[in-house]
Amino acid sequence: MRIPRTLMLCAAPAALAGCTAGLGGTTPVVPGQAAPISQAERQQGTQARDDIIAEYGGVYENAQAQAIAERVGQRIAVQSGLSADPDTFTVTVLDSPVNNAFATPGGYVYVTRGLMALMNDEAELAAVLGHEVAHVAARHSQKRQQATQTNSVLGALGQVLAGAVLGNSALGQIGSQIAGTGAQLATLGYSRSQESQADRLAVQYLKSAGYDTDALASMLTSLADQQALDQRISGETRSVPEWASTHPNSSDRIRAAITEARQAGGTELARNPAPYLAAIDGILYGDNPAQGVIRGRDFLHPKLGIAFTVPQGFTMNNGAQAVTITGPNIQALFGTGSYSGSLDTYIGKVLQGLGTGASVPSGQVRRTTVNGIPAAYTQVRANTQQGQVDVTVFAYETSPNRAYHFVVLTPAGQGLGQATSLVESFRKLSQQEAAAIDAKRVDIVTVGSGQTVSSLAGRMAFDDYQQQRFLVLNGFPEGVTLKSGQKVKIVTE
């Protein structure tokens, strides 16, 4: 399992919420003249590194992708003034399908393979990493959890999930702390003014590094298009207000980035698509089957032989610690923990680990069977800073030493609600079903004579939205005409 799929840049882990600027504020920062990295900042970033790598599924072991990320990342980072020595900056590609990147105090810069797959040239990579380095250079505060949470029940649910502890797991390396929705709400990141300042600095860094200053706008456009497509594919019709509340409206941000590029100049500088595309040829796309995959509304884990289906209109995020699910006034988490043969005991440990103060009432664990699998469940009322919620734990015994569970959080009095079909969908995969789940990879191909968007999109390893996926992946507008000899990305199995 992986970190939630968010199209939000700069969602650094909560362990790093501790820069020096005031809450949400900005101070003037001259490109190339940021205060040098301090010993304390270096120590802070070093201490957090192992946790970050574990949370994001580990380091992506791809020499070409790592090499170009390091070369471009160091080239753009030295433009900040944090250090003139490129080796001061440690650039890491994370094995996560999430479209994300961030930098931490001390010269640590991270980008996911998911975001690298969406980029189309070195300049876009430089733009994203420059934006992240700019946050560090400006010493932007990340202590904005309360400012970014709303009074909705979802904010309360996120607070509960943030404290969850489920123990060890073979399921996508579930560790000691729940990541997912709670962690995202806890680290939504920066204020709008800070995001705008980081964008302005990133454009300046692009120019001084010799990259096309339009690259930030093109990358932001790709992110917005991918977000819109993901919502369309999932059936999620609710709009996401201004990039999870803290990020400037995507269209406004793109327009501002274009204006910044025009004012800075350098829109004809290098983009270097050829070396970039060569470096990401064969990069893993989407979920790694070894960690479970999302296919439409299904979560499938071929290695463990289990699956479940979310209701129509729900979204699902495959995280490094768990799978998180969001629906109308519902949030849920799917995971596993150590199992000693008693579902009652297992459910009790899950509730204790949530940190809600709730425990299993005597005699309140009920038994049932789901798709032939022994199961048990209970529901309790929990208090949060935003009010009371119903917490349902639904557990399944798949073998004498293995159990899985959902934690479902809903407004008080709602019970499972629309999540009923979710908990009833848990099932075992047949060997044939598991064997049919293949890894997807980015394949760089050369457009041949007579080939069109339609013909190339038809080779995409998806059953739906092939053309739309092809266009977004390549940063192409509707109606684009391909040229013979042009390099493009497709996704194959």
Question: Would you write up a description of this structure?
Answer:
This protein is an alpha+beta fold and 493 residues long. Helix content is 34%, strand content 20%. The strands form four sheets. Strands 8-9-10-14-13-12-11 form a seven-stranded antiparallel sheet. A four-stranded antiparallel sheet has the order 5-6-7-15. A hairpin with a 2-residue loop joins strand 11 and strand 12. The protein is globular and about 70 Å long. Its EC number is 3.4.24.-.
> What's the Cα radius of gyration?
23 Å
Quick one: how many beta strands? 17
pLDDT < 50 runs, ≥5 residues: 2-23, 141-188, 238-246
Residue share in helix: 25-40%
Mean pLDDT: 82
Report the sheet with the most strands, covering strand number, pairing sense and barrel closure: 7 strands, antiparallel
Strand percentage = 15-25%
Q: How many helices in DSSP terms?
A: 16
CA-CA gap between termini = 19 Å
Report strand order across the widest sheet: 8-9-10-14-13-12-11
Structural class: alpha+beta
Question: What sort of overall outline do the alpha carbons produce when their principal axes are compared?
Answer: globular
- The figure for the number of domains is 3
Signal peptide: 1-17
Organism: Stakelama saccharophila
Pfam family, one: Peptidase_M48
GO molecular function: metallopeptidase activity
